[in-house]
Amino acid sequence: MTTPIDLRSDTVTKPSQQMREAMAQADVDDDVIDIDPTVARLQNKIAELTGKEAALFVPSGTMSNQIGLRIHCRSGDEFICESQCHIYSYEQGAYASLSGLAVQLLPGNDGVLDPAQFIGTIKSDNEHFCRTKLVCLENTHNRGGGRILPYDGVAEICKWAHDNGLATHLDGARLFNAVAASGIPAVQWAQHFDTVSICFSKGLGAPVGSALCGTTEMIAFARRHRKMFGGGMRQAGIIAAGALFALEHNLEQLHIDNQNAQQLAQTIRDTEGLQLAGDRADTNIVMFDVSSRVGSPSALVAELESQNVRCLALGPTRVRMVTHLDVSNTQINQACEILNQIVTNALTNDRKLTGSGAQY
Ligand SMILES: *Cc1c(COP(=O)(O)O)cnc(C)c1O
C-alpha cells in the first residue's frame, strides 16, 4: 500500500530528518526554574517576526488563546468574537470553565466580520451587564475555509476596539499562510493586536507548540498562567528546536501549500456534484459541499480513504481538505483525479455513495 495522501489537517505533518537532527542537537535547560536557551531563541524569533516585545512558548494553540483571553479579561468579563471561530467552537468552552468569561458572538460571512457589526456591541456600565473587554479575530479563519480576513477590515475593527477601550487578540494559528498569500508581512497584521497567537504545529510542520506574543508585561503574566494551566515545560528546547527550525526553513514553502489548495479548489469547481464553499480557497484549507445526488460526505470520505486519500467530513454536506508540506504536488494531482473520478462515477452510474456513519 502506498503512503496515504493525508489531507485531513496540516497538523499531520511529521518532522523531517533535518528537523529531527536540529531537535536532537538542541541546547536545553530547565525552562521553569530558569530559561532554556533554545526556547529563548524561539521566543525572540517569533516576537521579532510579529513585531512584539516578547513571546511565550506554550504546548498548544488552545493554551495560547486561553492565556491570551486571561491577559485581557477577568472573571465576569466578556469578549466578542466571530461565531465559528476556534476559541468558541473548538476549545471546549474553556473561556468559561477556566477563566469565568462570557462571550458575545457575531455571525460572520465565512469567518469575516464587517466592522459595522461591532457598533453597539459594548455593554454599558450597568450592574446588570458583564463588562465587554476584548475583541478576538482569527486569521486565517479555519471554519471559514482558510479565509484571509480583509486587511482594511481588520485595521478598522481593531481601531474601533482600541478607541473604545477594548483589547484585541489575534488567533493567528495560520497567520503565516495569510502572510504567504497576501504578501502582507506578519508584523503589519500583528500591529493591530495586543496579543497574537501563532501555531508551529500546523503548516509550519513542527511537531509541537505555539507561541503567544505581546508586551513584556503581558508575557510575564502569561508565564505565570502557563504554569497554572500545567504548561510549564522543563527541557522544552527539544521541541522548541523543531519550531525554530520550522520558522527558519518552512515559512517560504507555505505559498506552495496555498497553490496546491488552489489546484484542489479548481478540481472541485470543475466537478459536477461538488460545490466549493464560498467559491474560493484563500490559503491551504479547502472546504466543499457534496450534492445529495452524489451521496453523504462521510460516504465520500470513506470512498476516498479506500483509494488512499484522507480528508474529513465536517458537516451534513461538508468536506474539508487541507494541504501541507507533507503532500507533494504530484500527490495533489493524484488526489484531484481520484476525487473527480469517484464523484463523476457516482453521478454517471447513478450509484449514490451511501453507508458509513457520520463522524463530525
Ligand atoms: C489549530 C488551531 C488552534 C490551536 O489548536 P491546538 O490543537 O490547541 O494547537 C487555534 N486556532 C485555530 C484557528 C486553529 O486552527
What count of helical segments does DSSP give? 13
Name the bound molecules: pyridoxal-5'-phosphate
Radius of gyration: 21 Å
Q: Which structural class fits the helix and strand makeup?
A: alpha/beta
Distance between the termini: 27 Å
The topology string of helices and strands comes to EHHEHEHHEEHEHHEEHHHEEHEEEH
Shape: globular
Taken as a percent bin, the fraction of beta residues is 15-25%
The count of strands amounts to 13
| Largest β sheet strand count, sense and barrel closure | 7 strands, mixed
In terms of per-residue confidence, which ranges show pLDDT below 50 for 5 or more consecutive residues?
Answer: none
How would you sum up this structure, described in words?
There is one protein chain. By secondary structure, the chain is of the alpha/beta class. It is built from 13 helices and 13 strands. The protein has helices at about 15-25, 35-50, 60-70, 85-90, 95-100, 150-165, 175-180, 185-190, 215-230, 235-250, 255-270, 295-305, 330-350, and strands at about 5, 55-60, 75-80, 100-105, 130-140, 165-170, 195-200, 210-215, 275, 285-290, 310, 310-315, 320. A seven-stranded mixed beta sheet has the order 2-8-7-6-5-3-4, sandwiched between helices. The protein has a four-stranded antiparallel beta sheet with strand order 9-10-13-12. Strand 12 and strand 13 (about 320) form a beta hairpin. The longest helix has 20 residues, at about 330-350. Pyridoxal-5'-phosphate binds near residues 60, 65, 171, 173 and 202.
